[in-house]
Automatic annotation (TrEMBL):
This is Cobalt-precorrin-5B C(1)-methyltransferase. Its EC number is 2.1.1.195. Keywords: Cobalamin biosynthesis, Methyltransferase, S-adenosyl-L-methionine, Transferase. One of its GO terms (molecular function) is methyltransferase activity. It comes from Nostoc linckia FACHB-391.
Length: 383
């Protein structure tokens, strides 16, 4: 069995806890206790170094350990700089989360990415914010305020090897996640973990939402979908669809980034890019069926990414008052629904084969491009 580890926000929090402990007691921790909140358990995280930089400022360093997950952040150092006093009112624009009046102001330092679609705010998302604030708040006396700056010295170079830019995060990594546990997503036995979660949720709900990754999970929560009905699938969409049918799930909303989810329209039900791609072929085929002219189809086919192809279609609509994005993506979403149900029917020996599927595709700015007709009906039930 592969060993699980912890997500990046946990190590950032552990370093901050160690730095604040030094400010509070002038003691150097070798292990920092972090309440993961999700799940409800305590993690003991090794601290590599702690140093007081002044009477009011301390720095602590730990290293990422995601377990046996094939994660490029493995062993990368995470620094937390903690100083007494809250941030000024303009901190959000300068890479902070919070401002005057906040007990804990969180800033993104070197190596923490910036969100291009959110006024360049640091890419420190909801779980990381909550983790830091709830753990550090417990260590503060009434009236005390601190500013926490998270630094990933290798973040900028590591980010080049990620898909962060596809979601509008530039110049570093994001502190993204909805849980403190890092499961080995790239190993086959992870499917067993996903199936166990699916079995639990299928016993309580007839309608579930499948999200390939953290971006989908985060956006689905913001749209008001019950978190208990969200199921992370990673790239295992095919097996998870069949398992859901076997378990008697009646409705599944497929919720994902268009560059991933559109693969299903081409019959690709394991979406890891090492196994199969086909995105430009799928997009080009639907453009041709919709009636785009040959030069435009060629431009879509030759686009470097699915996002670039979408940008081209949007520019075409803006310049010619057309509706190609809606036409093409509506057709893709409808095809995803049909092919998903066909996949279930052809692979469900023990199931009913009658599970209904709907799909929602979003872009790099986490804005919804299209909902299939079935997805619209399901969203009415889920929100």
């Amino acid at each position: 069995m592969s060993r699980s580890g912890y997500t990046l926000p946990v190590f950032a929090c552990a370093a901050a806890v160690a730095a604040l402990h030094w400010l509070r007691d002038r003691q150097t921790l070798t292990l920092a206790s972090v309440d993961l909140i999700e799940p409800a358990q305590i993690a003991e995280i090794p601290i590599e170094q702690v140093a007081g930089l002044s009477e009011n400022t301390a720095l602590a360093i730990t290293r990422s350990d995601p377990g046996d997950n094939l994660d490029l952040t493995k062993d990368t150092p995470i620094w937390a700089l903690v100083e007494w006093g809250g941030g000024a009112g303009g901190d959000e624009g300068a890479g902070g989360a919070g401002g005057e009046g906040e007990v804990i102001t969180i800033k993104g330092g070197e190596g923490i990415g910036r969100q291009m679609n959110a006024d360049d705010k640091p890419a420190i998302y909801a779980y990381a914010q909550r983790l830091l604030k709830e753990n550090l708040q417990r260590m503060l006396a009434p009236g005390e305020k601190i500013t926490v700056t998270i630094i990933l010295p290798e973040g900028r170079s590591l980010a080049v090897r990620t898909s962060n830019s596809a979601f509008g995060v530039v110049e570093g990594l994001s502190l993204l996640g909805t849980t403190g546990i890092s499961q080995p997503l790239s190993t086959p036995d992870q499917l067993a973990v996903f199936r166990a979660e699916l079995q639990d949720k299928a016993s309580r709900f007839e309608s579930l939402v499948f999200c390939i990754g953290e971006n989908g999970l985060d956006l689905a929560r913001k749209l008001g979908i019950n978190p208990e009905q969200l199921v992370k699938t990673a790239n295992w969409l095919g097996p998870m669809l069949v398992e859901a049918d076997v378990l008697g799930v009646k409705e599944i909303l497929l919720f994902g980034y268009h560059g991933k989810l559109m693969k299903l329209a081409g019959g690709i039900f394991h979406t890891h890019h090492y196994l199969a791609d086909g995105r430009r072929e799928i997009l080009s085929a639907h453009c041709a069926i919709a009636g785009l002219k040959s030069p435009d189809i060629q431009a879509v086919f030759n686009s470097a990414t699915a996002e670039a192809a979408l940008t081209y279609l949007r520019a075409l609509d803006a310049s010619s008052s057309t509706d190609w994005v809606n036409q093409v993506y509506s057709a893709i979403a409808a095809t995803i629904d049909v092919r998903s149900q066909e996949y279930i029917q052809s692979h469900s020996e023990r199931g009913t084969g009658s599970t209904v599927c709907g799909s929602i595709l979003f872009d790099r700015d986490r804005k919804i491009i299209v909902k299939s007709k079935t997805a619209g009906l399901l969203m009415g039930k889920l929100c």
